[in-house]
Structure formats: C-alpha cells, structure tokens
Fold this protein.
Amino acid sequence: MQYKTINVSASRCYDIHIGRGLLAKLGEFIRPLLGECRLAVLTDSNVDALYGNAVVEYLINAGYNVCKYVIPAGEASKCATNLLAFLNFLAQEQITRSDAVIAFGGGVVGDLGGLSASLYLRGIKYVQVPTTLLAAVDSSVGGKTAIDIPAGKNLVGSFYQPVLVCCDTALMDTLPSEIYRDGCAEVIKYGMILDSALYEKLHALPFDRDEVVARCVEIKRDVVQQDEFDNGIRGLLNFGHTFGHAIEKLSDFAVSHGEAVAKGMVIASRMAALMGMCDVADELSSLLVEYGFDISCTYSSNEIFESLLSDKKRRGGTISVVLPRAVGDCTLVALELDELKELLTKVMA
Ligand code: GLY
C-alpha cells in the first residue's frame, strides 16, 4: 500500500499518514505509539453507517479493546451537551490515562474528540482519522479543538495535538459532492495564501486528491510549526474565515463552512482590491464558481459587521483580516473597527 508520511514537530511530534486504504493499517500505526490499551472511537451517524463496523473490526483484529460513541452528524453536534455526554461515556467505559480517543469523522468529530481528550483526566492521547476532505486538509492537523457556544463558533477549546493523523483518502469516495466541495474551499485557500503553483493546478479538475491533500497538509504543518498557538502567521489560515464565520453564524449554519469560506474569500479579495493591494477577486471568483460555489452574499455589510464583533480575532478596537497581495501571497492586516465597517460597506454596495 502506497502512502505518504508528513511529520509535524510541535509541542508534540506526530506523523500524518496520507493514502488510499489506510484505515486497514490504523491499528498497525497506533501500536508503537500506544501499546496495549482501550480505544474509544468517536464518530458521527453518517460515518458510522458507512465505516463504523469496519473501523471497530480493524482495531479489534489489531488486538485492541474498543468501544464506540456515535453523535448525530452535523455542526449542531459540536456543543457542550455532546462534550459532556462523551466525557461521561469515557468515564463509564473506565477509560484511563493509558487509553486513547480515536476521532473518526469530519471536523465536528475531530474537534469534539480532540477537546474531550484534552479535558478527560486532564488529558489523554488521541488520534485523528479524518473522513472528509476538509478535515484531512485542515481541522485534523495542528491541534485546534473546540466546540461552538451560542455566542459563536469555536469559542471554547484548546490547543491539543494528536499523537497521529491517519488519513485514508479512499473514505472520501463516498462523500456527498457538497461536503467534498466544502473541503475544496480550504484547498483553494491554501493555494491563495501560500502556494501559487498549487493554486494553478486546481484549475484542472478533478485534482489528484492524494497529491493535493499532502501538499495542503505540508503547508499547514509549516505554518503550525512556526506558530502553534496562533499568535502570528497561523492567522493566515483564516483567509476567508473571518467573514465566512460571520456568514455561517448569520445563516444559523444553513450555509456550510466551505460555502461560507468561499464567500468570505471573495469579500476579502474585493477588500484588498479596494485598498489597492491587488486585483485577484475576479480570478478567484471564477475558480470558485468552477468548483460550484455560490459566491453571492445575501447579508448586508451591517449584518456581517455586527456578526464579526464576537470573532476570536478581535483585539479590542481592531480585527485582523487576511488579505491577498497576489495569488499565493496573503498577509494579515489589523483594521480598526470603523475602517472595517466602511470597507465592508463599499465592498458590498
Ligand atoms: N483552521 C485554522 C487553524 O488551524 O489555524
């Protein structure tokens, strides 16, 4: 079986394996890291229906004692109620400090699994097994874990690195096209922020999934290694996300993360054009449309501005926004709230 391994050297060092069919090797990959232990698999109802039995069987066959907890699929599951319920499950199953959580799913499962692992017994090990393109290229790498609270998305969480990421790209064959497309928004984001060669490749559809996932993971790894705790360059990964999160929240999460990020990247690019930084908005918009994104925005500049005020990136009177200087070259710009409001009004007129 062919696969690529990318090593992350952060507060914890770990490997990210990427390739088709890797789920069957999960137990083998875990063995040197965890030895004899119990594994608590967290997954969601969609993934469970397709691969729940397979993952448990692979792990049992590899000699592990396994228990499984299934949450309903969807962003609404990334909540305090499910966090507490899963923590209780870990306690009921008598999971100890030498055991581990396997987060088997997309971003919601990865975040909830990672945050639970960081809290339970003040921290146990966990493994990310992403099943969506979005989780593979973004949320499973870099140790950000969180839940949503009514005041906003990802407002409660921790930085907590996994001991391993096992990315079986064949699992993405069964993803509904709109869920796969959500991941494509993040892939396009990587090209825009740091890699024009990757961006150019994305014009040829469909892209080579393994190659593109590996390149995105390498980019994220490089960023995380420089700024694990998100005090500087890691902020670049939020290109499109500041406005995107605002749109997601305004839509009560009816607009998916990828679609919201796509809209957010277009707003940021138009803002950069208005500020005289560069003019890539039309080019980026046409690529996003090629991928099937609806890049229109039905919310007013005022609604987006109000929604932005609870953003984690706000520092007192400023909010940092990622803006392009060119394809493959983005930068963080701290904008005063008044300035941001004025720019948004112009961009969305
Ligand atoms: N998803 C953005 C980050 O990991 O920093």
Summary: The two ends are 53 Å apart (CA to CA).
